[in-house]
Amino acid sequence: MSNEIRQYLVENKYNTAPDDTYTHIDEWKEWYQGDVEKFHRYKVFNGVSTKEEKRYKLGMAKKVCEDWANLLLNEKVAIKAGDYEERLQEVLDNNNFLVRANQLIEMAFALGTGAIVEYLDGEEVMIDYIRADMIYPLSWDNGDIIECAFGSIRVIDGNEVIYLQIHRKGNLEDREDAELYYIENKYIDRKESKELAPPEGVIPLVSTGYDKPLFQIITPNICNNIDFDSPLGVSVFANAIDQLKGCDLVYDSYMNEFVLGRKRILVPISLAKMQMEKDGVAAPAFDASDTVYYQMPGDRDSNLKLTEVDMSIRANEHELAVQRSLDVLALKTGLGTGRYQFDSSGVKTATEVISDKSDLYQNRQKNAIIVNAALIDMVEAIAFLDAGREVEVFIDFDDSIIEDTNTTIDKNIKLVQGGLRSKLTAIMEINKCTEEEAMKELERIAGDNQITGQDVDWTDMGDNKKAEEEETDNPDQEGSEVEDESSEEPAGSRDNR
Predict the structure, then answer these.
(1) pLDDT in tens, 84-115
(2) Do 204 and 298 have their domain in common?
(3) C-alpha dist (Å) from residue 81 to 88, 99, 441
């Protein structure tokens, strides 16, 4: 399909780049799906004939992409949008965003590129989630895709039709503002390669009235070393194909160790075949369908006896090799060594505390930059389509895998007490909120008399202040007497004294 769409775009004078990245997408897709025919199918010659075999596999390409999606966009990620937040959540829920966006990042890390596209269906804001083989950049600047076409296959009246949604920036003659975007909806008959009239209700040309694209591109934050000038990304395992092969080769050998190492008992032919006796035919001593026994050819009078063949299984050596293969793969895909553990239950993700100096932490923060920018642009586009307004957006990523919440609070308390951080900044980091929200929280705290204009410990709950006021009102009494007296007074009497 990709070749058909690219050919149509070129013939209709859309600027598309010759891109070698597309030729690799199919290979990445095979590894992601876990079945690469030219690798997982192989032949073995046993001395008599050639036998086709299917390799056992771990399926680590998908596992790596799943982990990256969970690290970047999980249920703990919060999108802050001020007073628009409640309505935003409705739009996201209507589009199953939490599930589909996580799946999109998984696919983007597998195939190199993914896209979020917003549009209006009547009065409702809709979100599409597009994978790499449906994305066709038309123009880009400094790595950012400015104009783009999105293609898919649809069936209309029983015929396969290519649907193209083309986002371009204002070069129409009748446009007053050349900085605004418009969208072209095109339908092409796949068999005859000719353009069709859009179905009823579909407008061929739509002005968005928006000076930003209604799509956001997500890629792994790594360089495309297949085509240096391509705006498309590469799979997170694009440079770890050999390591994926290594994992499957070792695991295949490990599994075959048990298949080929099954216990066998060699049985003389004299005991395995029917034997003639004077009073009739006797049954064989062993069941011919039992796979434990192996019939050895020979004469009835041979000295061959029942012989047990019990091959030793090299389980420990294979398990160590599988673990080493997993460590190298995790390192090559940015997850750091030690990410995966192989034991009797299979491959599992290790429980770990991620330090801010680890490879995983640094790569996770690097990839979060692209996801953060895409989510902010997405929310701004939704707010424009839904309410025609601008919003301030803040993305709170799940940092619990990196730093415990209590650790964050303790760190901020120490910095504030040491005069190295403002209370406003501390609240912003602890609550993961915007400056405006943090200021409102400060005002609420001040209203509760927990923070005053004086230079006091911001963690003080007010006990010291109360004791000082009581000493001022009763200068001749000891502090302990004041405390005893205050405990006997009815509530509010001290305020009326």
Answers:
(1) 999 999 999 999 999 999 999 999 999 999 99
(2) no
(3) 8, 20, 16
Which tokens hold the place of 280? 């009739």
Q: Do the Cβ atoms of 17 and 148 come closer than 8 Å?
A: no
Residue labelled with tokens 């050919």 = 7
* Residue 97 belongs to domain spanning: 2-218
Q: Is the pLDDT of residue 428 over 80?
A: yes
CA distance 101 to 491: 55
Residues 132 and 210 in one domain: yes
Residue 235 has pLDDT above 60, yes or no: yes
In this predicted structure, the answer to whether residue 489 has a pLDDT above a threshold of 50 is no
Distance in angstroms (rounded) separating the CA atoms of residues 138 and 165: 12
Where residue 157 falls (left for φ over 0; alpha for ψ -120 to 50; beta otherwise) is: left
Q: Which of 280, 310, 340 is the last residue of a domain?
A: 310
Residue with more model confidence, 224 or 49: 224
Q: Are residues 163 and 305 in the same domain?
A: no
d(CA 360, CA 367): 10
Rg (CA), the chain: 34
Per-residue burial over 274-297, b if 16 or more Cβ lie within 10 Å, else e, is eeeeeeeeeeeebeeeeeebeeee
160 and 289: one domain? no
Last residue of a domain, one of 218, 252, 282: 218
In the numeric block, the tokens 């056992």 are attached to 56
Query: Residue 153 CB: number of other CB atoms within 10 A?
Result: 13
304: three-class secondary structure by DSSP: coil
C-alpha distances (whole Å) from 201 to each of 121, 138, 197, 198, 345 are 11, 26, 11, 8, 54
Domain membership flag for residue 53? yes
Do 495 and 413 share a structural domain? no
Q: Which residues contact 182 (CB under 8 A, 6 or more apart)?
A: 167, 168, 169, 170, 172, 175, 205, 206, 207, 208
For residue 192, list its beta bridge partners: none
Q: Does residue 358 sit within a domain?
A: no
Q: Are residues 20 and 154 in the same domain?
A: yes
Number of H helices, E strands in the chain: 16, 20
Tokens of 8: 């149509």
Number of domains in the chain: 4
104 is a domain residue: yes
- Provide the mean pLDDT of the chain: 80
Whether residue 190 is found in the same domain as residue 296: no
DSSP class per residue in 20-67: THHHHHHHHHHHHHT--HHHHEEEEE-SS-EEEEE-----HHHHHHHH
Q: What angle do CA 328, 402, 406 make, to 5 degrees?
A: 155
The set of residues, in sequence order, having a beta carbon less than 8 Å from that of 314 and lying 6+ positions away, is 257
Q: Indicate the SS3 state at residue 279.
A: coil
Q: Tell whether 454 and 484 lie within a shared domain.
A: no
Residue 444 lies in a domain: yes
